Amino acid sequence: MGAFVISKRLNGDYKFIFATRRGKTIFTSIGCKNKSDCEKMIAAIQENIGQFTFTRNKNAAGKYFFRLAKDGLVLATSRKFSTELLFQKGITSLMEHLPNSETLDFSENEFVFPDSEGVFAEEQE
Q1: What is the pLDDT of residues 31-51, one digit of tens each?
Q2: Taking the C-alpha atoms of 16, 18, 40 and 50 in order, what is their torsion angle to the nearest 10 degrees?
Q3: Which InterPro entries match (predicted)?
Q4: Contact, 77 vs 67, CB < 8 A?
Q5: Which end of the chain lies in a sparser environment, N or C, as judged by fewer CB atoms within 10 Å?
Q6: CA separation for the pair 22, 14 (Å, rounded)
Q7: Can you list the domains of the chain with their CATH numbers?
Q8: pLDDT interval class at 115 (50, 70, 90)
Q9: What SS3 class is residue 107?
Q10: Complete DSSP assignment for 10-48
Q11: Distance between CA 2 and CA 42 in Å, rounded?
Q12: Is the pTM of this model over 0.85?
């Protein structure tokens, strides 16, 4: 099982990743101005992965990766895989787990811990 994780970039754009249950990122989306765009892309990918194109690539270091596209527009780029076998296993696992994956939203960026000034100021009193 895997999960889509929506987050916010430092420039204010939204993105999502697809990660394994162990937290390893499989692919990262392009930046989106609105969170709803991320949610629409995730829904489209989950409902109709067959309509998307996986373009296999190899970088200068000999590592394999893929780009996920629809109608010529690249929507996501995968992590790098060291061997062709791991690359193929990654795509097979993705196809198996993607339709039933949950979506997690971490885009609000609410920090759950208090500021250090607040914590340490109380100790000095």
Answers
A1: 999 999 999 999 999 998 889
A2: 140
A3: YegP-like_sf
A4: yes
A5: C
A6: 23
A7: 2-124 (2.30.29.80)
A8: low
A9: coil
A10: TTS-EEEEEEETTS-EEEEEPPBSSHHHHHHHHHHHHH-
A11: 13
A12: no
